[in-house]
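Weekly structure sync - notes
Attendees: PM, LS, DV (DV joined late)
Agenda: review two folding runs queued last week.

Item 1: First target. Sequence and structure tokens pasted below for the record.
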Amino acid sequence: MGRVISNSPKRICHSLDGVWEFEPVAATCNDKPSVFNEKLPVPGVWESAFKYFSYRGQGAYRREFEVVADKPADLRIVFEAVSHTARVWLDDEFLGEHYGAHTAFEFYCRDVAPGAHTLTVLADNTFGPHNPLTKATQDVYTYGGIPRPVCFEILPEVFIAHACATPLKEDDEWHLQVAVRLESMKTNSMPSTAVVTMNEERLGEMHIGLDGSGGGIFNVGNVNLWYPSSPSLYTVSVTAGGDVWRERIGFRTISTQGRKLLLNGEPIVLQGVNRHEFHPDSGSALPPVVHFRDIEILKRLGANFVRGSHYPNDPLFLDLCDENGILFWEELSHWQPDAEDMASEAFRRASLNEIAEMVGQHRHHPCIILWGMMNEAETNAPVAKETIKLFADRFRELDPTRLVTYACNHLDDDVALESADVVSVNLYPGWYGSGLDDVDEAVARTLATLKSRAPGKPVIFSEFGAAALKGVRSFEPRKWTEDYQSELIRRIVSLAQASGVVSGAAAWQYCDARTSSDRSLDRPREYNNKGILTENRDPKLAFHALREQFKKPWAILTDEA
């Protein structure tokens, strides 16, 4: 698949990436078409084709593949993402459905005959009650298609269906908590033990029960901690029967102390950006070269932090953040949910499911220090307190090793701040309804409110910025110019650095990104133009200003602040 490391090194992963047949399908249709007249690439989104640049509907993908085996084989078919809903068939057998544009899903297929087979996917990017996590008015374009890799594996008789390895620190000693679940479509007989290794050194064995599950805690001795300056990674393997599961981990802690964020017990300040997975040529289906290039640009910026706005990110990018010491905030697919959304059973159910998928699939990445629940929700509505607590509790239940937060833009009367470990604030002084002369006073009011409403918690300025069109310059402080954007971002970061309150700042945003055509009156080019880079990754003045500002020191954070 599209990662730095293979989770199943003994299985051959047969990539299904490449050219697929494609056919648009009526929104009311739930079945696969019999005729396909076009071709599109996978990974890819149909909006990359001129004909489907603004197509909102359903699209069917189909391709043939070969199962090379001397007898019927058990398959695992894996989709890293389909946007936003997928219905999948193997030949004429309906395998199932998955909702959620940014998380992986899989199907297990028993006794698939050797030879040629057809895989068909019906993807849906429409809005409505069936799609409770996204809305037509959101400030980023929601694509349709198969934006991440697809593959299939031939399974051994007994295979590892699930495993996880969690670093735990107790009494100044590091341990590794490992859990595994074996399954089979051929036999009820399971191996009695599984062997655990780290960097190819044996840690010990786990007993496997009759139901195929097992677990254990292992002392790992002296380990090198994961830091942004020295991101040490370890490879953990679990071997059971004829199968192997493998994953990379890092040993680090993230905690709070008053206003301070502590990484491995030491204060750390977050300096970075919000980043959409977007490129003008491929939409949300970023090829590896873009992820690698973005990491290089982030390091040149002097950033140690990225907020993955506003959805679970490509695991390849998370792998690269692990390797390069870039801290990460990963969040749910929410954009400005209102009180009606938060009260909705469909919204809550879909959110809880995405929490389980996101944590389960990405929990091994040491770069992730924050789980994000919402972006600019109507958190001054009474229902927000219950809904955000529900999500925060679920995050902590599944992963007590990380902090939880949400991006707030109702600070004055937010009712849910107590559920967040870190208080994160989106603020846009100097842009919406104000100018540069208003920035200092507006930030001062925000800081005063934080002192009264969120004492004793770390604070992140999770969004701030201004839009600028590349090449538009001015001697005067005019909005939409590179000069205005550059000065506004520099000033807000400077105020955060001097505040003694703020633990981190993430500029909005990394690069210009396509948005809904419904927002075109205040989004020239149908883009959110607040990027410090263009969509093609050319730097604006703000990139250079932010890089210079990130070199400057932050005031010491005090618990009284």
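Item 2: Second target, run right after the first with the same settings.
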Amino acid sequence: MNRVQRQDETEITTRDIARSARKLLRARFFSLLKRFFLHAGLALMVLVSAGAFLAAAALQPELLGVVRSGFRAEALLIFCGIPAILLTGLYAAYLHPRAVVAVYETYAEAQFVAPRGGGSLTSANRSYVRVKGAYWAAAFVWLCGGLAAAGFCWPLTLAVEKIPRIGSFCSSAVLTLGLSLFWLLRVPLGLSLAAAARENIGGFRALRRGFLLHRRVRQTASAVYMPWLIAVVLLGFGALLLSQWASGGEPLRRTVVLAFLLALSLPAWSVLLAAFDTALYAAACRGRRLNGEHDEQNAFQSRRADKNRRIDQRKERISMKTRDQIESTMKWDLGGIYPNEDLWEQDFAAAQELVGAFSAHAGKLHVSDDALYAALTDGSKLSYLVEKLYVYAHMKKDEDNGNVRYQGMTDRAIQMLVAAEAASSFVKPEILAIPHETLVSWSKQERFKHFRFDLFDIDRRREHTLSTEEERLLAMAEDALSGAHNVFTMLSDVDLEYGTVTDENGEEVKLTHGTYGMFLMSPDRRVRRDAYEGLYKAYRSMKNTITATYATSVKADVFRARTHNFSGALEAALFGNGVPVSVYDQLIEAVHEKLPTLHKYLAIRKRLLGVDQLEMYDLYVPILSDLDIPMPYEDAKSLVKEALIPLGEPYGKLLDDS
């Protein structure tokens, strides 16, 4: 056997089918039995009761205390006959199909996470229609099969009864053979209903799918359902004996008692068989060979060796290192921005001077193209310098969010950014005061080529731009409005402690945002669960603080949107990139339409992982064990550069320089 076992070479025995069905029954049997009985079983009991009274009135009215053609018998025939006929039609056409469809859909949801039909009401209705169509197609085929079996067995039974001495035995054997053949027809029909509850098929397409699946699991299906056939025969024989005893041998009473017993047992049989149908369908869909020799020892050793290999590969990646212990090639080099922090301080002082001098351009932008060009040039220099200060300080803080020095530098950079925005707040309103035709004419000059997009973008924002004084006030308030984001960053990255996680080797590893993603890819489900619960346990401990912070952030977004004349925060957020709200809505609709595909993927993932319930921490672990491709960082860089060659040489050179 290979060290890594192929998916389609794994074998499943009848024990696996029984185990899967037992899980479904344990989780859903009694609730489904109650639902089935309330939807259909109760009506069937009423129907049997009405049928018993009608039979008594028609065949033996003396049981009701009257003679034939008596008033009571005739009244029962009139007042019970018509409702019984209507109830029979209602039960056969609606109640029983509805109950059966509900059972198969519930089992499909339990076995495969969610039905393929998706979660919307429309999808659920379509799924119900498909399964109901498969039910009626199966009922038609089963009826035809029953008629064919009866047409074959009845004349043969009459013929063999004439054989001396063994005629009775031969007739019983023929009836048993016909019952067995009729019972085996039930297996592909049950698979058809399970397939319809899971797949986007219905009617006779579902029947075709059921028969194809039955060909793949024919031997296992025979082994699984043969005990059921024996149980049916034995229980049927027991029901006959019980009805014979309860009725005292009277034929009509025996028939009534037998009908009541069958009506009581039908819901339980339907729920039990649906569970085995769903389990057998799930096994057939795995594409595995069934009923072979199961080399469990070799399979266990293969899985164990593969698991140990992945653990060894991940151990180095998960182990916590200080920044000083990490190779220099794996860290960003901020020396290209500022070789030392003295230069940062010099630029900070220069930016302060530019902020103070920039107000000299106020009120002059509309005078001439030279004045506009001078303001845009100085504004570009100021913006570049402030952004350079902010990027350096923020990235130094990202190296260690707990470093007080770089927290202070970042705060100073943000304050400088706010001051620059306040000092240049008059630019957009004054540009918008320039007539549109004049602005277009000036922007066509060669010296404005680097500012054309900015001018176009400002012109696009005319109806969302306020007066100079109003824009200045909003710019000054931006530092306070962004406070919620800063609070959450410090809370999540610095203050919260997420504890430790015991990895696959039994070693305690500190849980951080960096190791969290690695833990979620662990093949050990216990490790994934501990990491997931550890992270969100820390968040839950601060749920009130986080909720208040988020509410403050939402209020700030709404405030920005309203002050700039947007219909809502969504439109304001999309406007900067020129994206209409309709595009966002269409994206959500497209995602909802494809949810059945996502549900199918989740069902496949659940089946391959072998879990009873798919959880959030099961969504990131690889489902294929033989595709763990190591990718050194340098090789990854080369691969990315090679992939971006079609974008042209300038793009590649820019990537190399960065």
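Discussion on item 2: Residues 554 and 642 are 42 Å apart (CA to CA).
Action: LS to circulate a short write-up before next sync.
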